[in-house]
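User: quick one, fold this
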Amino acid sequence: MGLAVLLLAHGSPETVDEIPEFLRQITRGRPIPPQVVEEVQHRYGLIGQSPLTRLTLRQGELLARELGMAVYVGMRNWKPYIADAGAGDE
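Assistant:
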């Protein structure tokens, strides 16, 4: 097994519709009042989309190229999850 880098980030959903699932991840399944979910969806809708995942994946690509080694990206609270980073590379 060679050396590799695991690049981590918080994670963010791609769409407003994914907000409820994302919030369940953050709260580890604890109930969230519907008005809180609606407010977060509203605010997320105002910004359109978070670039966090796209930018982190791009950083991983560039870092892998610069270092000449595998770089895996994992998100704490969204896809691709940390546990799935590098899955299928065995």
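User: anything notable?
Assistant: The two ends are 9 Å apart (CA to CA).
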